[in-house]
Design goal:
The chain is of the alpha/beta class. It contains eight helices and eight strands, in the order H-E-H-E-H-E-E-H-H-H-E-E-H-E-E-H. It binds pyridoxal-5'-phosphate.
Length: 243
């Protein structure tokens, strides 16, 4: 396993040029989530697709965070218009009401497995495909679809992303990054992201501190504008109280 720097297509290109015949697959999140909330650089995912095609490697998208609507599309792959060969998913497939994760297997990965009808991929778990988890996923997906909840990501981008950018323009936070319903703000020098998390918690807002100085927001798609405004106000109050 080799790790490349985030969104560094040049490094990926050099790696494929040197070891392309030994690379089975390249795995990436469409938007890096727990690593600090970093949307892809323009052309990065397309460039990976091109490299994987050129060197006959599989492109794997880890859509555990981005899948099932967080970016306003069912998949990050849709949002960025890149077709991966395998997709991992979990979290929002059941909105967390039941524990379920899975892998979508595209034709390129499936064909060798199905080439020999006598071959059986012996891979299983005790609770694979557990009916309770799967029925929760079916019900959840129906709600996402019928209540048009994916459309909410766009207005969350405006209210949450817009609110964070206002705080940035006031100098209360540093860089703001995000897309759809996943956003993050960097804390300015001297303001601890852990202290901000604690102060926000005391005021009723749960956020996630990431990396060295990032506060991340990944609200449910049903969040209303009032609650988004509360998140922004509470963040502003917490930062003001710590400076
Ligand atoms: C992008 C990403 N991939 C994978 C995982 C782990 O997923 P699981 O616990 O379903 O293996 C996480 C957990 O937070 C994640 O954020």
């Amino acid at each position: 396993v080799h790790h490349t720097a985030r969104h560094d297509l040049d490094e990926a290109e050099a790696l494929f040029a040197e070891h392309g015949d030994r690379i089975a697959a390249f795995i990436t999140e469409p938007v890096q989530g727990a690593g600090g909330v970093h949307p892809p650089e323009p052309g990065y995912l397309q460039g990976l697709r091109r490299l994987c095609d050129e060197y006959d490697a599989l492109l794997i998208f880890d859509e555990v965070i981005t899948g099932f609507g967080r970016l306003g599309t069912w998949w990050g792959a849709d949002r960025y218009d890149v077709v991966p060969d395998l997709v991992t998913f979990a979290k929002a497939v059941t909105s967390g009401y039941q524990p379920l994760g899975g892998v979508l297997v595209g034709p390129r990965a499936l064909a060798p497995l199905e080439a020999d009808p006598a071959f059986v991929l012996r891979h299983g778990h005790t609770h694979s495909g557990h009916p309770a988890a799967c029925v929760a996923a079916s019900a959840n997906i129906a709600i996402l679809r019928d209540e048009h909840l994916l459309d909410r990501a766009g207005s969350i981008a405006e209210s949450l992303g817009g609110g964070l950018k206002r705080l940035r323009d006031e100098g209360l936070v540093g860089e703001v990054r995000g897309v759809g319903a996943i956003w993050a703000a960097e804390m300015v020098d001297g303001v601890s992201h852990l202290a901000v998390r604690d102060a926000m918690f005391d005021r009723g807002v749960i956020v996630r501190p990431l990396s060295a100085s990032t506060i991340a927001f990944c609200p449910p798609l049903v969040i209303g504008d009032d609650d988004v405004a509360l998140c922004i106000d509470v963040l502003a109050g917490a930062v003001r109280g710590l400076r």
